[in-house]
Amino acid sequence: MDPLDEIHADMHVYRGQIATGQLLDVLFKSPEFQKLVLEGYLKNEAIRLTHSLGTPGTDKTAAFQQLDAIGHFANYLETIKQRATAAQESLVDAGRMLERLYEERL
């Protein structure tokens, strides 16, 4: 594959990752998302499950599985943010590489 085509393909991926990060930013700014997901699920539900582990009769396996699920979801959201940040930097770098390649071809 031609280097220019590779860079353009990479830039397309970076733009998609940036767009996904922007969608997440919109969600994070939403009071409903903050209340239901960030506060309600990722925080309060994790606290409730942790407290339930000390309660007799609690299905500890299920509680730990639910806590794992909360952790996985939190990691997923963080990964989106990290990929978007990295993609922004990579997009700038790819743009510079394109400029150099175009200049070399002239």
Written overview of the protein:
There is one protein chain. The chain is mainly alpha-helical and 106 residues long. It has helices at residues 3-29, 31-52, 60-105. The chain has one domain. Helix 1 crosses helix 3 (60-105) and helix 2 packs across helix 3. The protein is elongated. It starts with a helix and ends with a helix.
Q: How many domains would you count in the coordinates?
A: 1
Detail the poorly predicted runs: none
Mean pLDDT across every amino acid position: 96
Helix content: over 70%
Distance between the termini: 20 Å
Query: What is the overall number of helices?
Result: 3
| Structural Rg | 21 Å
Please state the structural category. mainly alpha
Q: How many β-strand stretches?
A: 0
